[in-house]
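Hi R.,

Here's the chain you asked about this morning:
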Amino acid sequence: MGCMVKRKRKSLILSLLLIGAMVFTGTFNYIPASAEDEQTSSAKGNSVETGDGQKDDSTDNVGETDDSNEETDGSGEESEDPDKETVDPEEGSEGNTGDEEEGNTEEDLDIGVSYYTHVQTYGDQAAVANGEVSGTIGESKRLEGISISLTGLNEADKESHIQYMTQVQTTGWEKDWSNADGEVSGTINQSKRLEAIRMQLTGPVAEKYDVYYRVHCQSYGWLSWAKNGEYAGSEGLSKRLEAIQIILVDKDTEPPKDPVSGVSSEYDNSYVSGVMYRTHVQNIGWQSYVENGTMSGTTGSSYRLEAINIKLTSDISGGIEYRTHIQSDGWEKNWAKNDELSGTYGQSKRLEAIQINLTGEAADTYDVYYRVHCQSYGWLSWAKNGEYAGSEGLAKRLEGIQIVLVEKGGKAPDKLNGIESEYDNAYVTGALYRTHVQTDGWQSYVGNGETSGTSGRSLRLEGINIKLTSDIKGGIRYKTHVQSYGWETKWAANGGLSGTSGKSKRLEAIKIELNGDAANNYDVYYRVHSQTYGWLGWAKNGEPAGTEGYSKRLEAIEIQVLPKGSDAPGSTDNAFKEYYEDLGKELLNLVNTSRETIKVAPLEWDEDLYQICLLRLEELQEKFSATRPDGTKFETIFAENNYSFTNAGQNYSKFNSTVTTAYVMNYWKTSDNSESYMTQVQKSNYEVGAVATDGKYWVYLAVEK
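And here is the predicted structure, written out as tokens:
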């Protein structure tokens, strides 16, 4: 069963000398020794049993022999009688003692390893030993089978063996270890490549030696050394083994130092190990599996990814799970696992985002990093361990993906396989929004900072939907100032409609704010493109953006959700232009005119007090009363807004229609409550004041600081 290279040192030398003499005279004929003889004799030819039961007989350095019946004895020397049978030393023959007399006993032999491979086109190669190369390099020939034996075993080590198994094309890993030295692992005459191999020692030899082995793998060259059952080669990548080296090394010593037999490792690992994946691509179909950061998919072709399979190599314990966000379907409810299908094919649906997680021991040992090439954005940044990668709600296709395992706690790869991230985030995350535009109707959703609406076309925004991406916990709410309606009384939330659709009503302003966990972790910034004024400054967290009282349409909007405390994306100046603020200042001027007539110092406009006036205005719209909606005195609003004061007063009025400032001032002077009104107007100790109005409701606050 395979080549047993178990030579005694002196007998080997004598045999070679004798072979040389016989070849010179042309009189040497060789008959293969029996299996028992083969355990102790050095044959002139390597008798190798192949997978189909036939033997390939070749000689050591002397070419093929003829068919004469000459035999050799146990020492490899020519016997005196050609017809005399050789004597099995195990039968106790006293005649087979020549080597022992010279002191070359079985105990003196070095233990080694002999092996041969079955190579595409060439068939069985001659056996080699102890680190020599078996196979081919540079010829693109696959290994198809292998036979391995231990050599030089003495009596004490006779129960020792070498076991091995291979991964075979289409078949996968063999289920069982070879059960005898020299057994062929793999296939013969089936044109199937070996893709990986494992081997280990058993018995007493395993306590004294480590077996090291490395392979030459298609596309990778010489991999690093594996030992004692470790994996060598690749899995799932359709890469052939082309050559192999095997060597025994004293137990627990360093691996062989390169070069060995003139070759050195060209790859950092003994096994192309980690994560493997393939994608189903528009117009292409299923691509081949790739591994460990190699791109799957395309770039520059505008082809969508439609489905994906992901798995771990056999040397990694644990599993991998993943799910995708699919066009029109959204996030898959169930996670695919260990090479199952995620996505669709044959339905022309794009993948838009992905999550990937490790499970079991793999999750304890590794982090899984992944990044995607996203339509319009290019290569996004790395996500890891279940984080979102891609986009959501933007109708953007995934076009390519990289996946890699990193030791637990390790950093994300930087530039990998020549690819660098082109976008700061792994996920186009934050706010998703769309607007209903005059004559155009509903536009598609855009995300975090993109423009929704138009500019330069004089088209009004009429309605808006806003929502957060799935990775942000919490919610978002918003309300708009609508032509002829004013500010909406109720907030829209999480994708609901604010504004109108089909009523030809322009939006004039908007307020947006976060709630729940989102409010604790993020700020929402937004700005609008307003008729006449163009892009206004950035508003934040519920502040108004746009105009009020000027009858100016909103034409476009941008929204960004940023980590809490982030700087504004740009200038915050003039985010909101309010006609009614001008009315408020105009009314305060009339107040100061009245104060001047009684020689009382004028009130200064206080912007902080104006913001409180706006809050009181909203409260009066909810409950028209001197007290607040919760029944507390109006003065409590100052403390809630960290506004210090000594004394404060208020005037508040409501009219059935929009009125002028002169009308309000006259009402305060002439109404039944005129004394009360004018007391607050003319009180001498007040220093600052402000007025807020929506044209119908008016509130005036004056404060002694």
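One quick note: Residues 1-109 have pLDDT under 50 and may be disordered.

Cheers,
M.
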